[in-house]
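pipeline/complex-builder :: batch 7 item 3
reading input block
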Amino acid sequence: MNHVTEEQLILHYYGEEAGEPDTCDALAIEQHLEECADCRSLYGSLQRVLNIVDSMPVPERPADYGTLVWERIRHKIPARRRGLGWLPAPWRWAAAGVAFAGLLVTAFLAGRSYPGPRPSSAQMAASRDPQTSERVLRAAVGDYLERSQMVLAELTNTDQKGVIDISDEQERADDLVTETRLYRQTATRTGDTRIAGLLDELERVLVDIRNSPSQVTPADLEAFRRRLESEGILFKIRVLGANVRNQEQKL
Amino acid sequence: MEQSDLHQVARARSGDTDAFRILVERHSRSLFRLAYRMTGNQQDAEDVVQESFLRAYKQLGKFDERASFGTWLYRIAMNCSLDLVRARKRRNEQLAPADAELDEPVLSLPSTDPDPGRLALSGEVRDRVTEAMSHLSASERTAFVLRHFEGMCIEDVSRVLGCQPGAAKHSVFRAVQKLRRALEPLVSTAR
């Protein structure tokens, strides 16, 4: 057997021989180490170095450390809504899709009263309790609007100096884009051009957030803030969200 | 354990903060060990632990139940540690010129606060080891900490790092090679 490389020795030390776990490799290396003084010396050096590194202490934490951590962060934990917001994005999307299958959506998005037309037999089959369905729908849209508002508000209200990492907001914006598209298409289909227009604006803003660099400067955020103000998007979302919540409470 | 974690995650997702408290209590100590080895500083490690749990809570909806909650949490903690290190590097750059040879942020030396564990190592050995560790790049140190101290296999290390196993393996190689070269004179004289 040729000399063993340093990389092979490192893998051998960690019990991860090259390729698939193969005891033949390990045995072959062991055998070579017994026969080859140079490789044995190299492996010995490696072991001693790693043993020294291993002996570096980590400050011990008390047994109740977890409780202490919880006490420090519990006040910073935001209340999690018991709506559909906790579902993974694809499920939220699916839930929203099912929810919007009914005629309820027009009145729902516009924040109007429930219109006159009776639900079809298919809708009756889909939901035997329209009022409950409507309440769920309103909660879902209210939750979606609230999350959109929060992402925009967090970006516009930050007062950090230097480069700011917005990757968390970007992930949330990415989730919201899909939902926005669904709601916008529904509003377009039902002829509610005002709501469709607002959701179109919101979608463009969310896409821009998602596609921007994750590290931005205060100047970038200031430009973003001015854009939102000039278009009045945040205000319009607040109004629409308040309407939806109001309707939800009435049900 | 993982089954139980998943159960708590499901409860936490539905708004049960008590379930999240259980997860925090269960994983805080191991997260602190990891964060300390990444940042080399007690206060920074404390900050990383707290920030990691807050980020995890915000992102619970993104957690894939097929994965291990612990591994997912480690990944968040690694990212928090690297964010903190990068922020510290930016601050330090304002005080001193950057090292042109380094393409990744280098982690700082651990603090020299005395404690019984530290005093057990001779001062010289400790200083040399900490200095050698500080010369690892972020990815090398991350991979090394996970493989060497946390005992993760290369496959799991790559999952936490979000890279291919080959890349994780090479990060471990480079880390060990750097450490061996830096510390070999020390172990030679100690023999």
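note: Confidence is low (pLDDT under 50) at residues 98-120 of chain B.
queue -> next item
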